[in-house]
Amino acid sequence: MPNCENCGRKWAWKRIVLKTLKFTNKANCPYCGQTQYIVAKSRKKTAIFSFLPAFIIIMSALIFDLDGWDLLLLTPTLILAGLFVYPFFMKLSKENEAGLLSRETATKK
Ligand SMILES: [Zn+2]
Question: What is the pTM of this model?
Fold first, then answer.
């Protein structure tokens, strides 16, 4: 679970999920009040998490010969499972990842 970069305290799983569901990566620390940005530890890991549920659904449909109703139940289950796991791979930063990236490209030029 991610820690606040300012005070070092661990954030609750619920807080990360709620913030990401709102499609924002910005959140105030509940302990010290400083703005933190939720960043993915590695872009590869996040890509795997978004790709894996789709892959599992397709594979299990082929292997177990699932019908429409099975898939209808399987899909939200996998999405929820993914939602449960991914905050463990998140990291908090004082700076916005997007801002860091644009600065990186600016120095390269
Ligand atoms: Zn804090």
Answer: 0.60
